[in-house]
Task: structure prediction
Amino acid sequence: MLLYLQILKNIVIMEITEKIKEMPYLSKTALANAFNKNPNTLRNSLAYWKKNGSLVQIKRGFFVFREYLDKRDNALYYPRFIATKMIEPSYLSKEFALQEYGMFTDAVFGYSVITTKKTQTITNQFGIFNYQSIKPKLFGGFVEKTYGNTAWSMATKSKALFDYLYFNKNKFRRIDGDELDALRLNLKIMEKKDWVEFSTYVKQGDKKIQAICGLVKKYANR
Result:
């Protein structure tokens, strides 16, 4: 009877495992719920998966099965997805988004992410994720991107530019063209509608960021 119950338990664990292997990421809470909050089963399963390399830790308490990563072309898109899931709410912006839009001419390494939570950096096998905290009233201006069953949020061209200037405003001393040149931005990508959107964010900033953004717009249209 005991052998039968153990076999039945193993079958249940295998069925649960097959289901959760299809999930793009798992929290420890989600795993606990999958195993009906049985701490022993969860502990033993985590130890087994980590030992055989089938479970990848994204950050403390967050995981993904290697099988999920290997089945899909995730090298490009999965880090973008997980960037906005490790810390929520958040969206990709600044240098990363500007490079995607062809507006940032220097090479970008890592993922720049905006959040209302604390500023922090998370490093894992998928890259370096730099989170910067912004005031709730300035949190916005992003669109949802999708790939397969994953979705992430990225700033529009206008908001990515605003965020970049907002977090670099202390680099400006004189607020002139030379300082703007040093930022190496390709502003020709911005269209009229983008500048209109850009202005909506500028109005919510302080006097310094308004002055910087005013210079940027003037400089781009010269």
